[in-house]
Amino acid sequence: MSLMVPLRNKLLLFFLFLFSSLMNSHVFAEDVDPASTAYIELTPSFIVNNISDGSKLTYIKTNISLRTSEAQRALIEANMPLVQDALVMFLSSRTNAQVTGAIAREATRAAGAVAVNEALQAETGTSPIQDILFSSFVTQ
């Protein structure tokens, strides 16, 4: 019997670790007061070139909404250019492997919220984004 763990088992362990770390960093539904939850739809759609594996240009087109508290809505809207820039820079830095498939997109969603919160933290001293939601996500 070989001491090496099959690739499938390694991938399973990796995704379990990724999922558990994502679950620890998110706000759960029971922790959020639905009356104070606000959704901010970002317009227009985001269309960015992302990092491709070859010489062919690839792009991401996505519609994004932000989940925050009603108390933080005005802060986010006042800093919308910063939010949009953070998302464009983040999405354009993603590789094809990081945006292909449901698990990769979930990781992209979580990492996108971190990127936006980091930009807002540097500017405003607060991290108001609870979640990023994709209403569409197309890659080519």
Walk me through the structure:
- The protein has 140 residues and is an alpha+beta fold.
- 46% of the residues lie in helices and 22% in strands.
- It has 5 helices and 4 strands.
- It has helices spanning 7-25, 73-78, 80-92, 96-99, 102-124, and strands at residues 37-41, 46-50, 58-69, 131-139.
- Strands 1, 2, 3 and 4 form a 4-stranded antiparallel beta sheet that branches.
- A hairpin with a 7-residue loop joins strand 2 (46-50) and strand 3 (58-69).
- The longest helix is centred in the last third of the chain and has 23 residues, at 102-124.
- The chain starts with 6 loop residues before the first helix and ends with a strand.
- 16% of the residues are buried.
- Residues 25-29 have low confidence and may be disordered.
Main attributes?
140 residues, 4-stranded antiparallel sheet, 22% strand, alpha+beta, 5 helices
Could you outline the blueprint of secondary structure elements for this entry?
Elements: H1 7-25, E1 37-41, E2 46-50, E3 58-69, H2 73-78, H3 80-92, H4 96-99, H5 102-124, E4 131-139
Antiparallel strand pairs: 1-3, 2-3, 3-4
Helix pairs in contact: 3-5
Gross morphology is: globular
Poorly predicted runs of 5 or more residues: 25-29
Number of strands: 4
Mean pLDDT across all amino acids: 85
Radius of gyration: 17 Å
Secondary-structure-based class equals alpha+beta
What count of helical segments does DSSP give? 5
Q: What is the rounded distance between the termini? A: 43 Å
Helix content bin: 40-55%
The run of helices and strands is: HEEEHHHHE
